[in-house]
Amino acid sequence: MDATRLYLARHGQVVGHHEFRYNGQSDVGITDLGRAQMLRLADFLSVRDIKAVYSSDLKRAYEGAAIIGEGLRLKPLQLPALRELHLGRWEGLTREEAVERYPEDAGFSFSTIGKKRLSGGESITELGARVLPAVRAVTRDHMGKHVCIVAHGGVNRVILCDAMGLGLENFFKVEQDYGCLNLIDYFSDGTSVVKMLNGGPNQEFASTKVY
Fold it and tell me: Which of 31, 95, 135, 141 has the smallest number of CB atoms closer than 10 Å to its CB?
C-alpha cells in the first residue's frame, strides 16, 4: 500500500524562551541554539529522500525550514494554515502580565481550551479545523513520497493526536520539544501510523537546557 512519509518537526528554541511568553502567532525568531537544532535536523534529513519542505509562515518555523531546505536543496513552501494557535489578547504576554491586564481571565485554564478560547483567539478544535485539511492536502499531493513540515508545538500536537486517533483532550499529553522530530506514515486508505514521537537528533542533547 502506498504511503506518504511525513517528517514533522517543531521549530528551534525561540528568542525569549526563558520568559514563558504565549507567543501564539506573534512573529518571534529563533536563538543561536535554535539554529543549531535546525542544522542538526538538516543533517539528519539530508540522507532521506525528501521531495518537498513546507512550513508555517511565521518566522520561527520558516527560518528553520529554510535551514533544512538549504541542506536538501529545496525551497520551503509557506502555508499560513500551519500557524500556531492564536491566543487572542494573551499573545506576546506572560500569564502574569495577561492576568494583570485582564483580571477577568484569572480563572482561565488551558486544560479547557479544546472548546473554550481566549478573547480574540482560537480553541484547539478550531486550530485542528484549519491545520488538518492542509496536512491532508500535502500528504495527498505527495502520495508515496517523503515530505517535511516544520511547524509549532500546538500544531504538531493536533496533527499527532489525529494520526493516533486520540481525542483533543489528550493534546497536552503529547510532548513537543524545541527542534524535535516526529515521523508519520499516511496510507492511501486513509489510515496512519506514528513511527516516531518527539525524537530526532536533538534529543541526544537533552541535557542542554532549552526552556
Answer: 141
Lookup: cell for 179:
527542534
- Between the CA of residue 54 and those of 86, 110, 139, 168, 198, what are the distances in Å? 20, 28, 11, 24, 19
% of the chain at pLDDT higher than 70: 95
pLDDT higher than 90, residue 114: no
Q: pTM for this one?
A: 0.93
Contact by Cβ (8 Å): 2, 144:
yes
Q: How far lies 67's CA from each of 35, 38, 141, in Å?
A: 8, 6, 23
Catalytic residue list: 11, 84
Choose which CATH entry (3.40.50.1240, 1.10.10.10, 3.50.30.10, 3.30.450.20) describes domain 3-205: 3.40.50.1240
Average pLDDT over residues 76-99: 95
**pLDDT one-digit tens code per residue, 2-47:** 899 999 999 999 998 888 889 989 889 999 999 999 999 999 999 9
Positive or negative CA dihedral for 10, 13, 16, 19?
A: positive
CA angle (200 as vertex; 46, 209 as ends), nearest 5: 120
